[in-house]
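Box S1 | Example of a co-folding query
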Amino acid sequence: MTDSERSLDKGSAAPGPVPQGLIRLYSMRFCPFAQRARLVLIAKGIKHEVVNINLKNKPHWMFEKNPLGLVPFLETSDGKIIYESTIVCEYLDDAFPGHELIPSDPYAKAEQKMLLDTFSALTPIFYKILMTQNTNIDATELKSQFFEKFKKLEEALANKNTPYFGGDSVSFFDYMVWPWFEKFSFCGLEGLLDKTPNVKAWQDRMLQDPAVKATFTEPEVFSGFFKLYVEDSVEAADYNLN
Ligand SMILES: N[C@@H](CCC(=O)N[C@@H](CS)C(=O)NCC(=O)O)C(=O)O
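Box S1 (continued) | Returned holo structure for glutathione
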């Protein structure tokens, strides 16, 4: 169940079949979409192994498993493949017992999906802001565009008046958005949270969550990865490993 393995690249052989009783996640240590799956695997206590992939030098066999050539994807011990992070996480929630992350109540479930749609509108702006890091580009305008949409999450949480977006405990939506919050300080977005007290309190609670703690990447480590990533370095995926 380690995520500290070096990534497999173009020259690597495909890993063998997944051992019985385990599920395998193909991941990349710094990918927020893959972190969604790692959060769910840990939160639900699912026995798993992680195979990291070097996305700057992808192994050929990756495309035989996932034609999209993206992480995350899952492989089961009977050879089934599941890809796309939200589908992966929904599958994990459905297929494994334990803490149910997606509510069974139809309205509560719809509410989670509506929130996720709201959040999805934020990610393209987030990436534009991310790409201004370590440059002289002024991100002020992008940050105000981001805040206009971000406010909707504050409103949603204030209206619900619950500690988490799904109620009294961590739900699917909380995990689906967490990986981006972790990068707020790196992107100079943490100041926004002063204007969104409910989301700020939620973030503080999330930082205490065991799955969040287990998958957390320190901003300075992410920064080291990001520097290599923008240089298109094949070393990026394994940054900070011995
Ligand atoms: N829509 C996909 C996005 C996944 C994604 O973009 N993963 C990135 C890494 S963070 C990737 O695999 N990039 C490889 C590439 O673009 O070639 C999901 O939700 O799983």
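The two ends are 18 Å apart (CA to CA). The mean pLDDT is 96.
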